[in-house]
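Morning. Coffee machine broken again, so started the prediction first thing and wrote up yesterday's gels while waiting. Chain of 355 residues, entered below exactly as on the submission form.
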Amino acid sequence: MIPNLNIVPFVSVDHMMKLVLKIGVERFLTELASYIEDDFRRWQAFDKTPRVASHSAEGVIELMPTSDGEVYGFKYVNGHPKNMREGRQTVTAFGMLADVHNGYPVLLSEMTILTALRTAAMSALAAKHLAPPGADCMALIGNGAQAEFQALAFKALLGVRKLRFYDIDRAATEKCIRNLAGLGFDMVACATTEEAVEGAGIITTVTADKQYATILTDNMVGSGVHINAVGGDCPGKTELHRDILLRSDIFVEYPPQTRIEGEIQQLAPDHAVTELWQVITGAVPGRRDPAQITLFDSVGFAIEDFSALRYIRDQLISTGLYQELDMLADPDEPRDLFGMLLRAATATKTGHAAL
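Came back before lunch.
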């Protein structure tokens, strides 16, 4: 543990990259998925609420809070697809953990990289319970910032080694193939979505445009596949034709949020879905037969970010990859906050005139 309660450990982007590389990307994803799975097994212990979203014409800014009664966590995250045209990230994020019993923060961390990792870990964790056994070929539709993480998570957790890529921007596909070269994949760049899904037991859609889109049409999806729908994650943003949903068994994180943001915003509010935590705990079955189409309608939920922050915090002492932030006021007497300010003024010899 960090010895000084008034000092908050901060994991910067540089520290996060060094931490991931020190652990190894695939091991990191596997261990992170285990943390998420452990927290989903104690689902009932958490406060749960749909994320608080502020929408604009350009994108969305969201806060994602939760608590297990001992630790409180939140993530700030945005989604602005236009940013790419300006040389900026579509998604940026940071997060915090705090001690419920005194309210003191115990971790502040970048979460732009961490969100990409936890999204991929969550996708592969869901597929572990839902994908056809032995599926080793995945179509990746949308080859942006999330794609390589998805590929490595599915390799680490399910043994997927064949990848079929498609993106409307050929340069994005070439970037993925270049980045994943030498990491044990058999990769094919495809000219169309239809070509990409041929022979794939798993289909991952992870596109960014904030619109009702039809990335997959019903005729592209045969029986027995698992669909990992990642890109539809806010109101007015979907990727799948409605007919695919009607043919699929749909699994979600938290229905009150997914019905607002996920693919199922296209369906009636009472359309039957299964909560993934119930599958993970064994309360209900996941994949039941070879012909079943399973769909993970992934929008991302606060408990997954809580798990990711919890995992990062557990790595700090062994790695030392953090810096100390003097973030909390610490007066000699808790009620004398102004006196602390006066003493600081005296110490710097600025006097009352500078206050």
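Residues 7-113+304-326 form a domain with the ornithine cyclodeaminase, domain 1 fold (CATH 3.30.1780.10). Going to sketch it on the whiteboard this afternoon.
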